[in-house]
Amino acid sequence: MTTAISIFSGGLDSILSVKVILNQGIKVIGLNFSTPFFGPDQARKSAEQLGIELIIQDITDVHLKMLKAPHFGYGKNMNPCKDCHAMMLHYAGQLMEEKDAKFIITGEVLGQRPFSQNQSALVEVARASGYEGYILRPLSAKLLSPTIPEEKGWVKRDDLLDISGRGRKKQMELVEAYGIKVYPSPAGGCLLTDPGFSRRLKELWQYHPDAGAHDIELLKVGRHFRLDSDYKLVVGRNQEENKLIQESVEETDLLLYAVDFPGPTSLLRGKMPYPEGCIKKAAEITAYYGKGKQESTVSVAYSGASNSKEMIEISPCEVKELERISIM
Question: Which residues, in sequence order, are CB contacts of 282 under 8 Å at separation 6+?
Answer without folding.
Answer: 227, 231, 233, 254, 256, 266, 268, 302
